[in-house]
Amino acid sequence: MSISIDRRGRADALRSRFSLPRSLGLAVALTLVGAGMGACTSEQFQKGYILPNGALEQIPIGASQDQVLLVMGTPSTVATLDGEVFYYISQRTERAVAFMPQKVIDQRVIAIYFDKNRQVRRIANYGLQDGKIFDFISRTTPTSGQEMSYLAPLFRLISFR
């Protein structure tokens, strides 16, 4: 009997010397679970132009092109057909899980139209709604025509980035 007690005593001594305290083991387990859950949260990404609050209200019809540049900054792209147009393009995407592809949740094109005297003629805030360009200011969908053909490639371009 004394031999088996001696072996148990040494085994217990070795076990206590090399084992982690329970609280440390629990802390490691909780950290691993927390890190795993952190990868399961959704992320949102903003690409392109970020519209400052109140910027469009600072640009009345008839404002100069220089005033638009001061308030809005450099446009994403400029069109020069039928007068000049500044386009400010933005896109918001979301990824549900870290390894999933991004999904477009909002897409906007702010178009500022100028006349021949470089004065603001019209301001439009276009979005992508059910696959069609939608003007959020006048709440109308333009008929297929010249303006649609100019904006469609812009939407396709930023959708594939």
Helical stretch tally: 4
Structural class: alpha+beta
Helical coverage, percent range? 25-40%
The biggest sheet, with number of strands, parallel, antiparallel or mixed sense and barrel status, is:
6 strands, antiparallel
Mean of all residue-level pLDDT scores: 75
* Poorly predicted residue ranges: none
Order of helices and strands: HHEHEEEEEH
Strand content range = 25-35%
Number of structurally distinct domains? 2
Spatial separation of the terminal alpha carbons: 76 Å
General form? elongated
What radius of gyration results from the CA coordinates?
30 Å
Number of strands: 6
InterPro entries: BamE (IPR026592), BamE-like (IPR037873), BamE_dom (IPR007450)
Protein name: Beta-barrel assembly machine subunit BamE
Domain Outer membrane protein assembly factor BamE: 48-123
GO cellular component, one term: Bam protein complex
Summarize this entry quickly:
With 161 residues, this protein is of the alpha+beta class. Helices cover 35% and strands 29% of the residues.
Q: Can you give a write-up of this model?
A:
The protein is α+β, with helices and mostly antiparallel strands and 161 residues long. Strands 1, 2, 3, 4, 5 and 6 form a six-stranded antiparallel β-sheet that branches. The chain has helices at 2-18, 22-38, 65-72, 146-159, and strands at 43-48, 77-79, 85-95, 103-114, 120-129, 132-135. It is built from four helices and six strands.
Which features would summarize this protein structure in a list?
161 residues; alpha+beta; 2 domains; 6-stranded antiparallel beta sheet; 4 helices; 29% strand
